[in-house]
Amino acid sequence: MEQALADAYLLNPVLNAERARLRAIDEQVALAKSGLRPTITGSGSTAYNNQNSNLRGRANVLSSFGGGIGSSGVTHPHGYALTLSQLLFGGFQNLNAIREAKSLVQAQRETLRQVEQTVLLDAATAYVNVVRDQAVVRLRENDVRVLTEQLKATRDRFDVGEVTRTDVAQAEARRSEALATLASAQANLKISRATYEQVIGHPPGTLMAPPSIRHLLPNSLDEAMTLGDGENPVILTAVYNEESSLFAVERIMGELLPSVSLEAQYEKAFDQSSTISDIETTSVTGRLSVPLYQGGGVSARVRQAKETNNQLKREVENARLSVHADVISNWGILQSSGPAIRSAEAAVGANKIALTGVREEEKVGQRTTLDVLDAQRELLNSQIGLVSALRDRVVAEYSLYSAIGRMDAQTLGLSVPYYDPFEHYEIIKNKLWGLAPPEPPLADN
């Protein structure tokens, strides 16, 4: 079981996709922080000018020259400029955008935990389903073998006149039913093996019955409820999403406040005219912008954000109720699994004794062939019931462990390199440039 869970943790594509999603959400913090930094822009220009002009002279002076003076010239004006822009105050929009992004990152981390728990629970369930179905196939195969021997013995007894044709027909019918149920059990095993490969990443080998994790579980329902409230990622995701929506309200409201910005520019121009060789300009400009009316758009977005916050508050409440229901349900299933297993074990023991007795009684004519066949069927059904009860207990244990928020690789102590969600975040949160994403903290391929 431990190796299967470790393989699912490393190889499951759903979990690896969620890790990539978290890394993408991490970039929201870097994006929000970029609003606090200056922007620097460089520009350049070049042109070709061909100018022809005439200047009218004084008639009494220039008349002898035809009435005017003409001039012409070709210039190649060109230049460059550097502009630095810095927002000094933006109504706290950038500050709240950073807080909003950080809360979204926290929410996505909890979502990743939830996906991890779901994948590991699915892996544990797939594992015990294969174990159960393998056991059922073995029981069904043994049943076919026993019924085949029973049919042969019944035919031999029919040949010597000890039983009737009806007894032979009953034995034949039971063997045919056993072959059909064996085929169904083999099909179920194939389905379980396919699910195992889908979740864990490779086909199952020879699987052993997993040990109980009862020692990891809380001792009371109250303790389980407390742990679920504090550690279940469904609740924590909802809490961080609601927190993020509060900062979104503040960010949008910042658009109604004044903003102050600074712009510094250096410009150098060459060959602007035939008489000017170059021009050098340096300027620093401060701007104050006061929003007076935006057509009601910002106000509508503020109201919209507030209603989104109201929605997410209700989702926090719903998440808690959902987790409480899961904890109570899985606690009840787990508590009933013990008596169910003990009852199934008792049924198997009693049916073994009954089958032995019926066979002995059949030999002396006190029981019929049908009585023996019925006793064999009851024993088989009780054995399958015991296998299913053992499977249900394991699933109930892992389901409760997931409901209280602890079904993750580190808490289970799996021998794998753990994915660190903080490593990528620390690398990129203040990153100033670079187009290539950092290497993932864990090889997820």
UniProtKB/TrEMBL annotation:
GO molecular function term, any single one: porin activity
Cellular component per GO, a single term: cell outer membrane
Recorded coiled-coil stretches: none
Residues making up the signal peptide according to the UniProt record: none
Domain of life, per lineage: Bacteria
Database matches in InterPro entries: OMP_efflux, T1SS_OMP_TolC, TolC-like
Subcellular location, record wording: Cell outer membrane
Keywords: Cell outer membrane, Membrane, Transmembrane, Transmembrane beta strand, Transport
Family the entry assigns: Belongs to the outer membrane factor (OMF) (TC 1.B.17) family.
Official protein name in the record: Channel protein TolC
Upper lineage: Bacteria, Pseudomonadati, Pseudomonadota, Alphaproteobacteria, Hyphomicrobiales
